[in-house]
Design goal:
With 292 residues, the protein is mainly α. It contains eight helices and four strands, in the order ααβααβαααββα.
């Protein structure tokens, strides 16, 4: 059949309309797919962004790498808030350290043990034991303020039973006994220790008198309680806290009174090299023979 010119025109118009509709449909599909991906992709990206802000397994270093060049500080409006991990690290760095006790001037060492041929002597007349006991009670009732540079001040009182037990162990409460190496009186004080104690406390006690001798001995015990309590027992100054498995404060104080702190507070830690002496004094604290 031969198509007329009118029909051919109509067919051409219809074909053009169909082509335009098809083109619009294709463009719409492509636009829809692009819109879908633009919306969907952030949903897969958000978890990754959340993970990237997690606290690192190790705290960041506050010191720049030697190879890094310094960068300008961020402006106040862009400075990030420090993480909890960094804040904890800063706190540890700024915590005040415990002063090193290796820098503390120590009192003179205790007198050396006497040679086998050494014998004690007596100076003047011995005070009655009742007077010695009263002098010890008076010395124990005092509050002492020993001094160590950069260490907080602490008022120390010496347990009267401890003071009496040390005096009994040292001299049997004989106020006029003198050892062959110079220790004198109820507390067996040597002159170098007396001078050091008077200088530390700003006192002028005479080791040759009963009251001066026992007070100098009490001062020394108070200084040792202060020293070991601060540096070795975390500011615990209570000598009644005993530990059967390790050296305690009372052990350290008694051992140092007998031998000096250098023999007790050593580079290897706290040691008690004269356990026989400390055990004897602690036994006297229990039996208290002066009461009988």
């Amino acid at each position: 059949m031969v198509m007329s010119s009118t029909n051919r025109g109509r067919f051409a118009v219809l074909a053009a309309v169909v082509a335009v509709v098809a083109l619009v449909a294709v463009v719409g599909v492509v636009g829809y797919r692009q819109t879908f991906h633009t919306v969907a992709e952030p949903a897969t990206w958000v978890p990754a962004a959340t993970d990237s802000t997690a606290v690192p397994s190790s705290p960041p270093s506050d010191s720049p790498s030697p190879s890094d060049s310094p960068s300008p500080s961020p402006s106040p409006t862009t400075r990030a808030t420090p993480t909890r991990t960094r804040a904890a690290t800063t706190t540890k760095k700024t915590a005040k350290p415990v002063p090193s006790h290796t820098k503390v001037p120590a009192p003179p060492p205790a007198a050396p043990p006497p040679p086998p041929s050494c014998s004690k002597s007596y100076v003047g007349t011995a005070a009655p034991l009742s007077q010695v006991g009263a002098a010890l009670d008076t010395a124990a009732a005092k509050s002492y303020h020993p001094y160590i540079k950069d260490v907080p001040e602490k008022s120390i009182q010496v347990d009267p039973v401890l003071l009496k037990a040390v005096a009994w162990q040292e001299s049997g409460w004989q106020s006029n006994v003198k050892s062959c190496y110079g220790a004198f009186g109820a507390m067996q004080v040597i002159s170098s220790t007396a001078d050091w104690m008077n200088g530390n406390y700003g006192t002028d006690y005479d080791m040759q008198t009963l009251s001066g001798n026992v007070t100098l001995g009490a001062e020394y015990l108070a200084w040792l309680i202060y020293y070991f309590g601060h540096f070795c027992f975390a500011d615990d100054y209570d000598i009644s806290h005993t530990n059967p498995d390790a050296p305690d404060l009372r052990d350290a104080v008694l051992a140092a009174y007998n031998l000096g702190i250098g023999e007790v507070d050593t580079s290897d830690g706290l040691v008690i090299p004269n356990r026989g002496y400390t055990n004897a004094v602690e036994g006297l604290m229990v039996s208290q023979p002066w009461n009988s």
